[in-house]
């Protein structure tokens, strides 16, 4: 499996071997297009922050460094941090020239000497000092207008900009035409425009258009159209249907070839499997498709969001390992994974689940409690006609909750489909699995809602009942059938009596389960002798673990298989920690002999 890691670092890929999302075919197409296109031309890689623009650019950069193409790569945010107004653009323009020289020298492609070397250095210095020459001086010429041919202010500024543009064009032309240098074009990569103030991003775009719009030059920009819109609001006002064309015209003037990041085609399953392996998380082959579908219905295909998702999942798995002896039932991996997706993507829905875990029980009463008129919701839903995703009352409550939030409104059916994934997988065990997993899934929540915070607190300060009587009251309140209570008492009543006269022993009655402990043993993880979940509401049986700490698990395992005719039965097993596991479904299988089994376990533990 290789080295096991705790987390996934949020950084772009730099080599084809790291392309887990399988975007190489797009980089090949773009590379071929750029290699054969007329110049100058600007290509905009469009997408929200974290959609993989930098990774796609890195694949292009790797390819171009093996071709007759010179490259320059600038991360704009590096020149925006800790700088004053109007200082970002000059820093970026200067860096573009410096990076071009650096990469060409590293490849042995830099041919400038003497006079051309001086011209290049002068042009680079000019771009870096442009803020002092045209903004900060007393003549007060605005940089955005300094190179605008229609500017009526100061002719000297316009002339100097034209001169430096001509100098840069001549230098690049000489570099390309040098017979000793196998180059036919220059590609400037301008990254992270969506990480700097929108006004700075727009200023950089204008500068590129007016200064670097020269032969042999191609620009590949990582950009988010929404950032451009924000940066132009000071000029056009907030975008409306009436002025939208002005925003689009500006964008089209700068970007000749728009390319939207193809996140919908990313190979999410391949990415998940590889990252799970690197984190040491095992996923059954049969569940890969389920995990992939859960991702698409929650956070979507944004690589950055997916890395955050997996890091949260990894953190919780580490916590589960530490808490194992305290709470054996910690939630199925897929349940935890889906709840995390809901917590990250749909925090308001996650909040409702913390209030009433079993979403299949959400009804008119619950809807009213959270401010939803279910009758009104049903009238609105009727307009959709027949749909399987809205034919049950709980689904209608979810749909109604989504209508109260603009983002959730557009994702309502994804939310319902995601919850249906859980219901289909866990069926009758849904409530139990939700209850076991919800507190862990709440750990990474940033919700300031009181109910959600309470769910988080259950891990550090879990609900512990004062004794057997209060625990039984809890089980009754939760609607546990009488046969389940009877089985629970058969196991825990004699253990409770034994504890009362033996101060070395302790029972912890918690909300989701109970544990019998020998406090005289050294080490927290060595004290637990039995852990049991609450009785299953459907079968009435109890899933419980006889811990390896008892020193009797193998002996008991063999005797139970023989005495209760359970040879080769999967309902009784020994796990990797050498704990003996007895499944709740043994009750309907053994029937009257089940309480004999419970009695046998008790006697073996306390004797």
From TrEMBL:
The protein's name: P-loop NTPase fold protein
Span of domain KAP NTPase: 25-317
Highest taxon above the source species: Bacteria
Entry-linked InterPro entries: KAP_P-loop (IPR011646), NTPase_KAP_P-loop (IPR052754), P-loop_NTPase (IPR027417)
Pfam families (UniProt xref): KAP_NTPase (PF07693)
